Amino acid sequence: MRMKSLVPILYILFLMLPIYWLVAMSFKTTNEILSGFTLFPQTWTFANYIEIFTDPTWYWGYINSIIYVTINTVISITVALPAAYAFSRYSFVGDKHLFFWLLTNRMAPAAVFALPFFQLYSAVGLFDTHLAVALAHCLFNVPLAVWILEGFMSGVPKELDETAYVDGYSFPRFFMTIFLPAIKSGVGVAAFFCFMFSWVEMLLSKTLTAVEAKPIAAVMTRTASSAGYELGLLAAAGTLTIIPGAIVIYFVRNYIAKGFALGRV
Amino acid sequence: MKTQNQRAWLFVTPVLLLVAFNALIPMMTVVNYSVQETFGDNLFFWEGLGWFEQILRSERFHAALGRQLFFTVMILIIEVPLGVAIALAMPKKGFWVPFCLVTMALPMLIPWNVVGAMWNIFTLPDIGLLGYFMNHTLGISYDMTQNPVAAWVTIIVMDVWHWTSLVVLLAYAGLVSIPNAYYQAAEIDGASNWAVFRFIQLPKMKTVLTIAVLLRFMDSFNIYTEPFVLTGGGPGNSTTLLSIDLVKIALGQFDLGPAAAMSLIYFAITLFASWLFYTLMTMNDNKS
Predict the structure, then answer these.
(1) B92: phi then psi, degrees, rounded to nearest 5
(2) What percentage of residues in chain A have a pLDDT greater than 70?
(3) What residue stretch is flagged as signal peptide (chain A) (predicted)?
(4) Model's pTM, two decimal places?
(5) CB half-sphere exposure, A255, CA atoms < 13 A
(6) Model ipTM?
């Protein structure tokens, strides 16, 4: 029994090591980093964080990322809700093919879309806007949201719908006041996954932006390549990107697996 | 039984328009480029299937595809059994469960370029924790930028670090759904640990493990950002995976024709895998 509980402990230790190193680096001075190996920061410094919070290029990177992630989550959930309802409750011509086609977009390599997206969003005048990144991320987030929501909705018995109609509810009223509350954990999970995949994606968000909507990922790579190698600053910026995920993850901890299983556990 | 209702199409229309805008127009652009040659100035000439032939015969493509397949196979061989083993060892209830779930899921929520940068800092030969430990404590020469083997080991370990938790969480979700009565019955029958695993736990995990294997297959097959940030495809071309090579040709050299043809071949492979995924999953749905 003791041996058994060692396995998760060792695994978590392995997961935490690189994160610890990133956080430790972020509190070191550049001098200390370059002068040799130290396991703990010898002279603690907050200079790296202060620079990020005072330099608009840096903190706007975070704000830009949060803006397009939020827009994307709102759009994805809004369009996915009725579609998921249709897939879970009705059968219609072409439903299976459509459902499969949606999934293929989740599986498409982002690298395939990088160049055509750049041209498409330039052509419609959306290049370098938050909306462009938010819409581009819909490519994989909308299918994902439809799948997750469909999984959760299929777990709600059809009798709920029928009873509501017998009681004289109109469809919009039934959907908003009865059905949505019944699947609210599903909506939460779908929103979490949209947030997550939009937050971690970099190739498309970097390709579709230049200055105005530059995401934190792009700010980081440009800093890494232009200003020599400011490891401490890079580490601090990386540490800050972990925080939003760490906060939201706590609320969905019991549903993460169900979300990854596309609502089918 | 679902109700026949063609008006359901109205419900699906917003999704359809949005995804079609994102998927069909770019895909048509790619198809268009894949059959033409350009010398700039927006002048295009018909090229037919020449680019496809060239890509399918090119050694560069074969090499990148080979590296990609090797990477994906390694990922599956390591992450799936490891994930299942960790899920089996996890506590079923109590204070530690939420702690385990949250800490294990954390790597998956870190932006992919940060994952690459983090592992870069972690493995720097003289000032990284792992790099220093390998070079100075163990005395094993370890430098990702010089040694292809070190680079390969590092990108695989990085992906294990990043995504094994996906398998753990899915397998764990399958495990906790097993009613206690099953275990009690097994105990009465005097079943061995292996028998419990083989005949109770594994069948219950089948659905979730199918999803885990296929998600890991797709995502590792499409991987770009993490290895790109960590190794940049090097040293030399030793870790240039398919996506990295594609972006090099498309956005680096701006060779539109070959890049488009390669995109379509790449996409066809993923499409085949998606079809497999869908078939397996609906098979499971129908059974339950």
Answers:
(1) -85, -30
(2) 95
(3) none
(4) 0.87
(5) 23
(6) 0.86
